[in-house]
Amino acid sequence: MDYVVAVLLPQMLHGLVFGAALGLLALGLTVIFGLLGVMNIAHGELFMLGAYFGIVVIALTQSFWVALVVAPVGVALVGALLEVFTLRPLYKREPLYGLILTFGLALTLREIVREVWGGDMRRILEPIAGSVPLLGMIYPKYRLFLLGASLLLLFGIWLFFTRTRAGIIVRAAVQDAEMLDGLGVDVPRVFTLTFAGSAALAALAGLLLAPIFTVVPTMGVEMILLAFIVVILGGMGSLGGSVLAALIIGEAQSLFSLWMNPQRVAIALFTIMILVLIVRPRGLFGREGVLE
Amino acid sequence: MVWKRCVGLVVGAGLALGGALPALAQDVIKIGDLGSKVGVFEGYGRWQTYGVVLAVEEINAKGGLLGKKLEVISEDDDTKPGPAVRKAEKLILQDGVKLLVGSISSGATMAVMDVTKKHKTLHWNAVSCAEFMRTTKFHPYYFANQPDSRMQANGMAKYILDKMGKRVYLFYTDYAMGQSDGRQFKTAIEKLGGEVVGVAGAPLDTKDFSPWFGAIKASNPEVLFLAFAGTDSLRLMTQLHSFGMTKQYKLAGIDCFLLQQDLPAIAEPMEGFVQLNHFSPYNPDPDMQAFVTKFKKRWGVDPNIAAGAYDGVIFWAEAVKKVGSFDADKVAKALEGMCMDNTHIGRQCIRPEDHQMVMDMHLYRVEKGKNLPIVRIAGKDTIGEPMVGKDPVEGFTWEIKKK
Amino acid sequence: MSSTRFGWRVWVVFAALAVLPAFPFMTGYRLNLAFDALLFGIVAMGLDLLMGYTGLVSFGHAAFLGLGAYSTAILLERGVRSLWLCLLVAIVVVGLYALVVGYFATTRRGIYFALLTLIFAEVVYTFFRYTMTFGGSDGIQGLEAAWVLPAVPASAIDSPLKNYYTVLVLLLLAYVACRVLTDSHFGRVLIAIRENEDRARFLGYNVRRYKMGVCVISALLTGVAGALYPVRLANATPDLLLWTVSGEAIVMVMIGGIGTLVGPVIGGAFFIVLQEEVSTYAPKIYQAVGLSADKGVGLHFLIIGVILVLIVLFMPKGLLGAVRAVGLRRPRSMAPAPAGGSE
Question: What predicted TM-score, i.e. pTM, was given to this entire model?
Answer without folding.
Answer: 0.86
